Amino acid sequence: MESFTIGIVGLGLIGGSLGFDLALWKKKRCIIGYDVSWEAAQKAKERGAVDFLGESVGEVAGASDLFFIATPVREIPRVFYEALPFLREGTRVLDTGSSKEWIFETIHLDEKNIEYVGFHPMGGAVKGGIDQARVGLFRGMPVLVVPATIREETRELLFELGEVIGGKVFF
User: Is the pTM of this model over 0.90?
Assistant: First the structure.
């Protein structure tokens, strides 16, 4: 069975909740996370949202098979370009942002054979942050997927990820 090292940059409400749900996935090898707030990152690790903490976006990106960008929308392109030199060929990058057109106009993939997908679980809470993150935040929620171009095996993986977090994927 294929297994994945999962990277999550942004360990607040969305990234932390993803980490909690993905920690239960049988295909998870490990989860490595990073947040600009070292305090939030430490809490995410202590609470079990991630197994390891990276010291930089690049460190997390370089270790990941699945690389989630769970930052505020306006930060997504910056984080992507910070990660890009470290991403390995075949890495799948998923952003959790709610705005897609602007992101897809801003991000340009290089020749590394990286798949970039907008993966927006439509769940949340009144307050944000790792203290509000929880298992099942996305249960029963739609997950909007906006692919640039993806392979069939990635499409199948996205449906599986939707199941793991309890959501229903819509393309």
Answer: yes
